Fold this sequence. Notes:
Its cofactor is Zn(2+). With 346 residues, the chain is an alpha/beta fold.
Amino acid sequence: xxxxxxxxxxxxxxxxxxxxxxxxxxxxxxxxxxxxxxxxxxxxxxxxxxxxxxxxxxxxxxxxxxxxxxxxxxxxxxxxxxxxxxxxxxxxxxxxxxxxxxxxxxxxxxxxxxxxxxxxxxxxxxxxxxxxxxxxxxxxxxxxxxxxxxxxxxxxxxxxxxxxxxxxxxxxxxxxxxxxxxxxxxxxxxxxxxxxxxxxxxxxxxxxxxxxxxxxxxxxxxxxxxxxxxxxxxxxxxxxxxxxxxxxxxxxxxxxxxxxxxxxxxxxxxxxxxxxxxxxxxxxxxxxxxxxxxxxxxxxxxxxxxxxxxxxxxxxxxxxxxxxxxxxxxxxxxxxxxxxxxxxxx
Length: 346
């Protein structure tokens, strides 16, 4: 089969690799029908995730059709159309039993495209298939389902829920990429008073206004002054960091009000200064984390019923064999306007 293989920082190749096979009784081998690229994949290619070693097939967001299963798999069967979660769950360890799947100690957590071969391929082996895949109703398209693999649960759990967005809040989302936009979309479920987006790209600021932001600012604008103006001089109730660089994290700490919440959803590849000399007295709560995907069933129901509008996230479409072109377009989002790309099998 063909797959996108990581060969070290800055090096990738769409090449021939062996087909995956069932190795354990809980495995499923799944034919990829649609797949996308994550900002985390770009971090890997920059060398920000040293646990990813050369030779690894990348990718952790896909929809596919089950081809074969191990003897212990009972929830899915060959022929089923499924969502492949970005988080794999053993379902039995302490953390999985607490629905903290990202902390799985039984062989799960974020492993696809990280510690084992991922989904940017024609086929993939998914461990713990019963607890790491979701059957998809006909009413949910492949493109909409792709958004449920990672960005929707990530933005909802790590941004909105961790940030404790509440009715009447002022929420600042720094970064209007896919996760930031999804945070704006899911924040609307809690009726915030104002959602303010901050992003340097004009196209992404325009997208933010379409996805739930009331105000969209560039970093060169006087962002702090505007936030203070909208909050009676206090600062935002919630700031959500959705980029993963020191400057955007520090901006979130500067914009939050006393007693507010900072929810870090970005993937950081270098150290960030935490100004506790300023923050300690403000009673600020800061949260971090990898998505658990515990809300995926709920989000899937909402998308299936039309209660959560995820239209407009996919901006560029390719065939699966056009993986290199898709990476080029996605990695130059500032020039191409790409939000999420979708690659489909022929």
